[in-house]
Amino acid sequence: xxxxxxxxxGCPKNLLDTEVMLxxxxxxxxxxxxxxxxxxxxxxxTCAFINxxxxxxxxxxxxxxxxxxxxxxxxIVVTGCLAQxxxxxxxxxxPEVDAVLGTGSVHSIVEAVKRVENGERxxxxxxxxxxxxxxxxxxxxxxxxxxxxxxxxxxDNRCTYCAIPLIRxxxxxxxxxxxxxxxxxxxxxxIKELIVIGQDTTAYGIDLYGxxxxxxxxxxxxxxxxxxxxxILYCYPDKITDELIEELKTNEKLVxxxxxxxxxxxxxxxxxxxxxxxxxxxxDVIKKLRTVENITIRSAAIVGFPGESEADFLELxxxxxxxxxxxxxxxxxxREEGTPAYKLPNQIDEQVKQDRYDILMREQxxxxxxxxxxxxxxxxxxxxxxYDKVAETYYARSEADAPDIDGKVxxxxxxxxxxxxxxxxxxxxxxxxxxxAKEI
Length: 440
Description:
This protein is α/β, with parallel strands linked by helices. The protein has 14 helices and 19 strands.
């Protein structure tokens, strides 16, 4: 049988789809190789959220196409968001691509590979709203460390800049018992941290149970599994309930960390974005979250949205200085065809967008520097993720650090540690993003 290679791009939600496809192929008897140059067929699971993501996806298709022309690669299968969004163009504009699967066809990966093996060109686009959620998966994150738990699919928020509803469909929650069972399986595999994800995790349960059930799910995950850490990402400000804040305060397994993408603070900009709630709601939610002792708040904003005035932007800068968010990222507005914002008047010049991004991130760099300095001299519990032989230090994450998006804690130790060990360390130094510590 063919050897299959994988390229997985984009967010953790996309990575879960990759893990499901890997499980389907492994069950069908295919050998998975981590080296694309050794593969007979490569599956590229793409992202298409913003222009940069689309460019990365296309660049990867072209890179893998080189192997087809100059090495032994026999076939290319493109899946994921780019495949869903540009279904009519991919096969016609990329003759190197042999098969394309939309986001509703993730469970058809074996059929697609078989068609390619037979020399056929193939495409399938099942209804993205009807795709089976969950399923067996091959966990690709660091063994013994963390794994993602996708609790929902799709989104109903309809932000004017966002193409996700076009790509992923309407919001659908997974049944709670299914999630508990999957979590138990992951913990039994040695996973120490479960990271709860979805397009909008705070909306979890509204479609199945008629009310927001994220706090209940987190409580059950803590009580019914032996997981050590729980972490939540992608929480919308308008759905941060008192019950969720209480869960953050009282659930000992739930790390004091929340990912809260605000997108902006100017009420006029938020209204044009069709975000639910204004700038005051965002401020009020952050104030409530600050009642959780030692909480780390991560957020993100878009600069250069159509009609964003200088005053709007300055308000955002002032907010960053005042809110002192421990983690913050920004994006320049990406004009996405098919979204309502694409046709909005007063589009912002690209150079102005970039200038505003640079200014905003300089403001946040100052906040981050100030925050990290306060951590020097403190004791932390960290989750070991590996050893750097060149630097001769272990690297890990604290409760304040989500994988891939936040910093790391580098630490020295007199005894040996394995991936997945929890270690108590003393922070000795800090830079803009990372901490340097020694084992206590």
